[in-house]
Write a sequence for this structure.
C-alpha cells in the first residue's frame, strides 16, 4: 500500500519553525486565554491538531475585516480556533461551533469561559445532521471548516447554503504536506481524496470563487481553502 504521509526533511521543518516564530514575535501578543487553552487541551489528552497561532490570528483578522457578526465553525476540538474567531466578533455577535465529542465540548466550554468568550455556543452532535437542521433565515458571515476531512464535500455544500452573499468559507488542511496533489499518496489517503473531491466540485461551481493558500509554519506544511459566495 502506498504511503499516506509525505516526509518533510527535518532541516526544512526547522526553517518553517524559525520563520514562523520570528514573524510571530512581532505580530502576535501574549494572550493568557489562548495559552491556557493549549495547555488545558494537552493536559486533557487532546491531539495537537489545533490551528497554528498565525492562522488563528488570520481567522480573527478575517472576521474583523468582513465585519462578521455571525460565525459558524465545524470542528471545535478544544476551542482554540473558536477563541481566536470570538475575539474578532462584536459584543452582540454570535459564534456557533459544532463538535461530535461531548468530552471535547466540555473542554472547549472551559477554555472559552477562561478566555472571556461569552458569545460562543458549542453544539454537540453529528455535524452533518446539525448543519442540515440550521435555517437560512439568519445567514452566517464566516464559516470555518476543520473537522473530519472525509466530510468536507458535504460540509462545504452546507456552508454555502448557510453563508450570506459575499460571505467567507475557510476550509483547513487542504494541502496535507503536498499529499493531495500527489497521486501515489492520494490513492491511499481518504482525507486527500475527500479534498480532491471538494476541489473538483469547486471547479464546476459558479456560485463561489475560491483559492488555496499554502502554509508553512511551526506545525507543518499544509494550507487552507478560502472561498467567497458570489
Amino acid at each position: 500500500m502506498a504511503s499516506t504521509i509525505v516526509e518533510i526533511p527535518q532541516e526544512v521543518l526547522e526553517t518553517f519553525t524559525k520563520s514562523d516564530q520570528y514573524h510571530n514575535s512581532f505580530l502576535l501578543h501574549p494572550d493568557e486565554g489562548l495559552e491556557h487553552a493549549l495547555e488545558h487541551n494537552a493536559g486533557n489528552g487532546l491531539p495537537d491538531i489545533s490551528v497554528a497561532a498565525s492562522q488563528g490570528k488570520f481567522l480573527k483578522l478575517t472576521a474583523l475585516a468582513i465585519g462578521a457578526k455571525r460565525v459558524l465553525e465545524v470542528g471545535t476540538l478544544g476551542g482554540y480556533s473558536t477563541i481566536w474567531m470570538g475575539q474578532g466578533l462584536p459584543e452582540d455577535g454570535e459564534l456557533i461551533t459544532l463538535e461530535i465529542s461531548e468530552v471535547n465540548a466540555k473542554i472547549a466550554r472551559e477554555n472559552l469561559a477562561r478566555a472571556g468568550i461569552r458569545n460562543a455556543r458549542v453544539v454537540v452532535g453529528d455535524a452533518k445532521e446539525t448543519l442540515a437542521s440550521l435555517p437560512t433565515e439568519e445567514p452566517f458571515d464566516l464559516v470555518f471548516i476543520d473537522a473530519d476531512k472525509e466530510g468536507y464535500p458535504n460540509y462545504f455544500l452546507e456552508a454555502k447554503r448557510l453563508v450570506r452573499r459575499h460571505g467567507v468559507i475557510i476550509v483547513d488542511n487542504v494541502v496535507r504536506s503536498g499529499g493531495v496533489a500527489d497521486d501515489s499518496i492520494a490513492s491511499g489517503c481518504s482525507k486527500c481524496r475527500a479534498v480532491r473531491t471538494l476541489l473538483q466540485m469547486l471547479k464546476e461551481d459558479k456560485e463561489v470563487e475560491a483559492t488555496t493558500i499554502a502554509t508553512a509554519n511551526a506545525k507543518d506544511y499544509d494550507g487552507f481553502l478560502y472561498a467567497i459566495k458570489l
About this structure: The beta strands are 70-74, 94-99, 120-124, 140-145, 163-172, 208-216, 221-229. The chain has a mean pLDDT of 95.
